Amino acid sequence: MKKLLLAAAILVLSATAMGANTSATLDTAVSETLVVTAHYVTPIAVTLDTAVIDFGDVYTDSVISPESVVATVTGEENETFSYTVASNGPLSLLTGNITGVAQPLASGTNSLTFNVGLDTAKVTDADVAETVTISVKYDAIADTTVTATPVDPA
Amino acid sequence: MNKIIIVLFILSTFSFAEDGLFYIEGTGIKAISMSLGVSSIDFGDVYNDSDVEPVLVDFSLNAEAGYNYQVEISNNDNSKVVQISRTSNGGYTDGTITYKAIATGEDEPQEFYVDLDTGIMTGDLSAIITVMVVYLEII
């Protein structure tokens, strides 16, 4: 009984001395956020409706009709691109849309038409074999931009 | 001897109406303050093979000197494209960074880096990075 009384007294004193503090400010985490964005861009691509043009048998006085070639460019909608059409030899006569900048991809596609002829006056005894290449490239690919948090005017 | 102690104790507690003396103590603790130096990062136009430079994000903390706090840096990007690290040249994770420190009572500059794992991108990215700081013990 004596021990029980002693224990009870100690409990009373201990309960008096203890307290559980709460503070919405001190107990709650402080947080800040920042936004991270990036625009996933579809690679630009080009296809031609013609793989090979064979002008047949020609001589230096031959008159031939240029052949029309359609290039279809696909890429990111609303981006713009530049392009060039070039031959790796002196005999191909390229006319039409053979160079341009800021071409729109309004719906993600754009068709370009150019013509390939042959400068027969330059033809020699040797056979002709030239390659015409169209190159397309986006005009601008946006780089990273970082926005600093506005300073609160104190 | 046990009898004497018990009797005195009970009497002093319950039997006498006397003036008592006790102390009230408390420690004033400043609330944690934090300011983030960057509000947004736009990595621009990217594709799977894009190599973007990590972006430094600096922030400042101020907490009561001698108190432990925990910093948690997380993001809500489920695609795991967003990568964060406390150093620019390695240790990147698509998860959460957590570390503890003892406050100095002064403004403490801290930083982390944000990068992209562009190789797994399949679409536009829009994510939020959250930096959270909390005291580890408030008595």
Describe the 3D structure.
The complex is a heterodimer of chains A (154) and B (139). Chain A has a four-stranded antiparallel beta sheet, with no helix packed on it. In chain A, strands 6-4-8 form a three-stranded antiparallel beta sheet, with no helix packed on it. Chain A has two helices and nine strands. Chain A has helices spanning 2-17, 24-27, and strands at 30-40, 45-48, 67-74, 80-87, 92-96, 99-104, 109-118, 132-138, 145-148. Chain B has 139 residues and is mainly beta. The two termini of chain B are 38 Å apart. Chain B has one helix and eight strands, in the order H-E-E-E-E-E-E-E-E. Chain B is elongated, with a radius of gyration of 26 Å. Classes of the chains: A mainly beta (154), B mainly beta (139). Chains A and B meet through helix 1, helix 2, strand 1 and strand 9 of A and helix 1, strand 1, strand 2, strand 3 and strand 8 of B. Strand 1 of chain A pairs parallel with strand 2 (38-46) of chain B, so a sheet runs across the interface.
Which percent bin holds the helix content of chain A? 10-25%
Output the strand order for the largest sheet of chain A: 2-3-7-5
Quick check: average pLDDT of chain A? 86
Strand pairing plus helix content of chain B: what structural class?
mainly beta
What is the topological layout?
The complex is a heterodimer of chains A (154) and B (139).
Chain A: H1 2-17, H2 24-27, E1 30-40, E2 45-48, E3 67-74, E4 80-87, E5 92-96, E6 99-104, E7 109-118, E8 132-138, E9 145-148
Antiparallel strand pairs in A: 2-3, 3-7, 4-6, 4-8, 5-7
Chain B: H1 2-15, E1 33-36, E2 38-46, E3 55-62, E4 68-75, E5 82-85, E6 97-102, E7 108-116, E8 125-135
Antiparallel strand pairs in B: 1-3, 3-7, 4-6, 4-8, 5-7
